[in-house]
Write a structure and sequence with these properties.
Elements: H1 3-26, H2 32-58, H3 64-87, H4 100-122, H5 131-148, E1 153-156, E2 159-162, H6 163-196
Antiparallel strand pairs: 1-2
Length: 197
Amino acid sequence: MSDMVRKIPNWLTLLRLGLIPLFVILLIDPSPFMLFMATAIFIFAALTDLVDGYLARRFGAESDLGKLLDPLADKILVLAALVMLVAQRSDFDGSPWVPGWLVVLVLAREVWVTGLRGIAASRGMVLAANSAGKLKSGFQMVAIVLLLLHDFQFRFFGISIASQTIGVNLLLLSVVVSYWGALEYTSLVLSEALEKE
């Protein structure tokens, strides 16, 4: 396989990182068109994450750079989106599109797990992404798209539910799943550390 093909996953990750500033700029004071563009960019960036992961596994193009940049790009994309969503206010009651406390919980979990990964690495351990982490990422990406489409209405059995309501609840579900995964990571790292004491 050519070096060019091997580099595609990393180029997609770098593209995802490059799209984040544009996404943020569009959400500073968005018009409806800017909000549409920001949503399209977020969806595209999320899809590049799926594609680069697939290509890396399919063609054996995984690299140390990719292992570092890919999860970092995902975290920055999600956190940038959530922070910008807190900054958006409802036209009806002035409340943020996503509660700040929920974003704090997401951020705290990411900082905690990053710290655990650092401790694990210093002891020669590798904390691979567990199923809870992958599920969490999927929930977060879908939740953010729904939050960006905040005033879109879904109808279920004759009841109209705002996209924002579904997005907030899905984000809350992602937090529950992510903390369960963080608990598994914490238990693994602490048990390994205690065994070596």
